[in-house]
Hints:
The structure holds two protein chains of two kinds.
Chain A: H1 2-26, E1 50-52, H2 62-66, E2 72-78, E3 96-104, E4 123-125, E5 140-142, H3 148-180
Antiparallel strand pairs in A: 1-4, 2-3, 3-5
Chain B: H1 2-8, H2 12-45, H3 62-72, H4 83-99, E1 105-107, E2 110-111, H5 118-125, H6 128-139, H7 143-174, H8 179-185, H9 201-216, H10 228-231, H11 241-266, H12 281-303, H13 311-338
Amino acid sequence: MKKYFNDIFRSVWSVLIGMKITFRHLFTPAVTVQYPDVRLKLPERARNRLYVNMDDCIGCFQCDMACPVDCIMIETVKALPTDDLGMTSTGQKKRLWVTQFDIDIAKCCYCGLCVYPCPTECIKMTDVYEFSEFNRSNLIYNYATVTTAEVVDIKAKAAVYEKEQAAKKAAAAAEAAKAKAAIPAPATAPAQPPRPTPPPSAPPPENKS
Amino acid sequence: MEQIFRTLTENDFLIYFLMSVIPLLWVVPYALFAVWLERKVSAHMQDRLGPMRVGGWHGWAQTVADILKLIQKEDIVPAAADKKLHFLAPWVVFIGSYAAFATIPFSSAYIGSNISIGLFYVIAVSAIVVVGILMAGWSSNNKWSLFGAMRAAAQIVSYEIPTALALLAVVMVAGTLNLQEINQHQAGWFWNWYLFRKFPFVFIAFIIYFVASLAETNRTPFDIPEAESELVAGYHTEYSGMKFALFFLAEYANMFAVSAIGSTLFLGGWNSPFGDLLGGPVWGAFWFLSKGMFFVFVQMWLRWTLPRLRVDQLMYVSWKVLTPWAFACILGVGFWMMM
């Protein structure tokens, strides 16, 4: 009997306490914000959309290699000795045309591993987080500054230059071979076939600082 | 009100039609407002904002937009459903809750039907809702719907007993079942309200009535018939579009109906709390609707405060707590009146 009355009293009392709490919350300001109109400030080191400052990119492929999901696609062409690609803001000479620098942000897992190895600090995470698209292919961002027409031109010039270099090398090799021809047989005349594109790795040696 | 219509037209049928439509003019805008209010109250109690966009100021047009959407929605009837019952159920539920408005005195000048058994009629006719709910659950041919409907039937039938007994205590004080007369007996300042008469018996009866009416309208903490987490949506799981909207409208109409009965019997109905100050038919309607809306707010307040009861707890509250206490109130009032 005592328990019966005690239960009733306690349940009524706890309901009143609950009502007091909810009533107090009725007048506390909302903790949510009106999202598209009001945005919460992101943390300083928030990782969102990637951005590449192509003025500073030297085409070293370190971000490409660091990426765990292979969302960065880079293609470079060696610059001719006559081309002047300028300097990066960190004072390094750019030796490669970056003919393609695509980031498939749909694949990106926002790990930020590409940011740390960059020798010129040109790839970084921004605070932009709204980039939904209706078409998935629109999520492949092209950062390369050279146009497709220029790419064709650069590649053609590079191929010609490579061929010239190869021919020169072959000639030099033939010369050397001729000089040595007195003793061994002149067998290795065409030294190496010209490579169509430079190998995709091999960062410039002076990058490590 | 009837006299005003009688000066306009001689046709009895037209007069009765107009008289019966007047509560609908309140119930539909009220339901739209109450759904919006419920969302805002729940949001602010959880430190959120709730609807904020539609219509500008705090999303006031949200429910209007919702109802426009519901009107355009496809009316889906399950292939295995009992088509006739499935079609009829929302109407029965709504008619059951709307019929209760016939004897509710909105003001000293308006009562749909001033019959001498008004309160008895309200209790009797609101029980039709159970039939509609059972129809909805059975015809949906869905085990969750049937579960919800069975629970609703068990719950509403159980809780009608403490409701009726608690109201009986007031009827003993008032000496009449006519709701308009009950209002007139409570005229004057607020201490003339039945809530403060025969203290504390009528006061306890009021609390019993309020708790039981929550269960009768299937509101939290007694919303086990439509317990989302266990039964999807209970008896209206298989309803879409306007039929679902009718269930919703009926639920909110019911909320107001029980609040109106509560305020009429215990809080003086359309009587001003300040004697003759701010009296009269128009202010009367204002006081009546404000008291009703206050209880609707309290129902929302409780809904967003309390978790849902278990079925056995529900039955415990009804049979072992509310019913004996209601009997005790009747006895108390009876002894008081004999002395």
